Amino acid sequence: DVADTVLYHTLISFRNYPIFEKKLRETKHTIKSRVHLENAKLGKSNGKIEYSNAETKNNLKVAEKDTTYAFGHTVGDLMIQSPSGRNAVIVGFGAIGKKIGKRLSSIGMNIYYVKRTKLTELEESELGYKATMAKSLEAVAPIADIIILAVPGGPETNGMINKHIIDKLPSHGSRLVNVGRGTLIVENDVIDGLKSGKLLHVGLDVFSKEPFISDELIEREDVSFTPHIGSSTFDTFDATAKFCLNNIDRAFNGEEPLNLQN
Description:
15% strand, seven-stranded parallel β-sheet
């Protein structure tokens, strides 16, 4: 379920679906919504869709003409791209990281992973898709079209996404999804990365000052949000309850609880 949440944010980061949905709800017209957005721009300083007064008037006039058409492949100068063929770097390649890789591989992405130790040949064969180990996040950052954070918080990972790493991202821009912990990123550096264009989109399920979210982040349309619900399905809740009850039974029967080592 966490991997599904990553897939959701990843697709948004390349396709910008919420921006189109918002405009469609306003115009109630598929072509008009695309025409409006083709003539707009995404303001880097505030992360909002912007129109000049002249553009707004022109858009309204143009969009009223049934003969006007826009394909929807741009929002101003922002290119709407496919994730297929692009590089996904997964930081943290345990059970969840591997499932994230499977989801992203299935939509055609090239998978790189950052992990202390390289997978064995057997582990690689069990993946069902190709995954390449990166020496470090710093080393792989220059080719990362998106970075996925799926590691725990703690002293070793605090602030791992910072200005130093963001500056190393591709010149054409990259994306970031965090389903680990809010402490993994330096929030101000990430916001500066959005403003500079080094980061094109950020998807967040966890936050540095959780349960609160900064006003500057929440108002940006180049950031997608979920309220720390990466694993929040009835299926997971039910499976967890059954697992715990089974362990209670095992304890009463003098058996060792499952996954005690974790």
